[in-house]
């Protein structure tokens, strides 16, 4: 005779077996194993891209969801023929991630990225990648806000309740940041698939807290903000930290987190990076929010979890 508890256990085992068999029969296992193709671009940056690109790549690799390639542009001052050879084939990928902040890309590469994203591809912008290309109009539409002067364009913050506050150019500060510190992140759209299940407020590992970002700021959907305290050289306002913008059929997700490799090791940053990349690439989020996650009072680095 078996107890109710045992029956429950065996019942669960049976249900799991039936589930696996039916998944195999329906081919869902094969589909789930299909990797999402990501291209990371680096090669010039006022940040240590040789150190940070491996952190971005290993964050994506660790999920088992992606197949990640890295393409490195010619260095600053390299001759035109080197740039003529730089023609990444974006359409071989589901999303592109930029860790690049440097010289303008050749026009064919710019056009190719515009077509890729407007055709439904994903684009992820990390930290100083939003400093790049002030002269590239379509790029500025894709990122919405970049590291630009106050005279460049609109500024976006939120009020305490997360309501968007738009300021015209020359109103308020241009781009900057105070001293690096740990700071609290407030999730502003918990319905968005990237943010669903992420705590409403959590501590981010030491980073630059960007403020006064400027740009066309059209169609912006703010996913998270951080309060920029005067005491650390900030603006006394809630500055956007993560946002997304539709561009044609594609999506662009920008996170201004990620100054150093240590900032990128924040479990919160890594979760948003991986889920955000999956979302802009496939329109779905299947990657879970880790059980160990920073809280409103305690930051958490992947170095503390290992
Ligand atoms: Zn930085």
Task: Briefly summarize what is shown.
With 306 residues, the chain is α/β, with parallel strands linked by helices.
Summarize the structure in words.
The strands form 3 sheets. A 9-stranded mixed sheet has the order 2-1-3-4-14-13-12-8-9. Strands 6-5-11 form a 3-stranded antiparallel sheet, with helices on one face. Strands 7-10 form a two-stranded antiparallel ribbon. It contains 9 helices and 14 strands. The model is unreliable at 1-31 (pLDDT under 50). The radius of gyration is 21 Å and the shape is globular. The chain starts with a helix and ends with a helix. It has a single domain (4-305), classed as Class I glutamine amidotransferase (GATase) domain (Rossmann fold, 3-Layer(aba) Sandwich). The chain is α/β, with parallel strands linked by helices. It binds zinc ion (ZN). Zinc ion binds at residues 47, 127-128, 208, 259.
